[in-house]
Amino acid sequence: MEADRPVWTALGRAADGRIAQVDLTEDGTVLATASVDLEGLAEAVAAHEAAVRPRWVLPDVRTWYPRLLAAGVTLERCLDLRLVHRILRHSQLVADVRALRAATAWDTPVDPAPEVERGGEALFDLDPSAARDQGVPHDIDEVLAELGRQREALDGARDPGRLRLLAAAESAGALIAAELQAAGIPWDVAEHDRILTAALGPRPAAGSPPARMVEVGAEVRAALGDPQLSLESPPRLLRALHRAGIDVRSTSQWELQEQEHPAIEPLLRYKKMSRLLTANGWAWIDEWVHEGRYRPVYVPGGVVTGRWASSGGGALQIPRQLRPALRADPGWMLVSADVSQLEPRVLAAMAADEAMITAGAGRDLYAGIVDAGIVATRQEAKVGVLGALYGGTTGDSGRVVPRLRQRFPAAMALVDGAAATGERGGTVTTWLGRSSPAPEQEWTRAQAEAHGADAPAGEGERARRAARDRGRFTRNFVVQGTAAEWALSWMAGLRLALSRFEEVPAERAASASGPVFARRPHLAFFLHDEVIVHAPAEQAEAAAAAIRESAQAAGRLLFPGSPIDFPLDLEISERSAQK
Q: Which residues pair with 326 in a beta bridge?
């Protein structure tokens, strides 16, 4: 095989139940075929990766990659057909989506299959008939057919370069998600227990509430005059609040904190305790932390904008007070970095708004807005920018947004235009080509009926409110989705940079990180605009430099020629700080 020929290698099940491996050129010409038993797959993939370094074509990374990682095998690049299919079949940049939409077998939910959380073994059933009940098709003929459909869609797309970049970034994200679960987050169970004990009291017997929760619950019941009240029942709690003269429509924190009554302060404390116990209490430790590692299940593209979700363990909702439980192994460090004002910077770059780019150049963007004389305080600047992104029209947002329109006309025109498109029922698209879903037929019908001559009274206002809601969604979609694309590009570049670090000696290994990541720096955590790298202490500074360089490279990749920068708040420490 010629070294200078682009090679793609597709994997799938052959008719005889073995694993087929097909090498192809960029135009789809088959170069070679081979097959291997499942037991020999990891060895065969490792040898091919070392010799050829192809872009692997996998029907679904989440079902194939965990087995390879467990065997100590990593892939440098891949194409995740399942994830890319979902992007292309909806993208407004694809001229002809008929073939993709006809391939309904590839339209699967984004949540990972249950077998993935148990290690993925069941997904490699060699019985071809069983494979059809496990999500997308895995037969090699169907894999190659879908690859052909996606190539045709990309070749005929408007601005195919951007869509190809999105496909590569989304697929890299799939690899990273599996690697994050395989490596895990170093977790200090003793520190977690200390935090829980300080907040809730000592660990109680199974089925019993912690002592401090009992005490605070008694305060609430006494203040409400109902000693038998179940605080975990929202309907009963709401009735008790009403009996006490507290006029609220719900038991939400935001509504309660506006009230003045002796029951409110202990009730808010109780609710905070209850959330901690339920989401990240001792039962969570027992289920999710093993051998010093927390291994969450990430779902790439789990949010419609392209942001990640999680399907187990709540990695994207770890409360700040538990951050000290993230603790590096002995001789290793945590290198934490988050981007300052990612979404506003992405908006400035998309709109090529020179004034907004200048306001954030090399510094806090909100402080730059203050220095420009637009508002008096950083908090006003933050509220105004978030109002611009999310469609705030009242309070401080409503007061500041008009000033932003005057000073940052290009940026505001971009989000205002996206909102107007959504209000009309149109579709908007991110920088690289992910399109928002079309409105539901019921929404479209209701809009049409509300503007008809025979529309009932009040229908027009309800339709306008629904249109504004959709406008707020599309306003944010283009920015949040593009920010997610930047974050994927950042992580993809960082992942490759870290893979080139020298391995430390076996005696320095972080053994709980598994065969792939025990001896070199690796990504351990991701949260929208934040990453944490677990690195040997002597490589921590170099890992920090790689994080910075990858962030700037992601900016150049998405916005070539733009002066936009993406400054980081970066820290090297043994423990993750409370942020």
A: 187
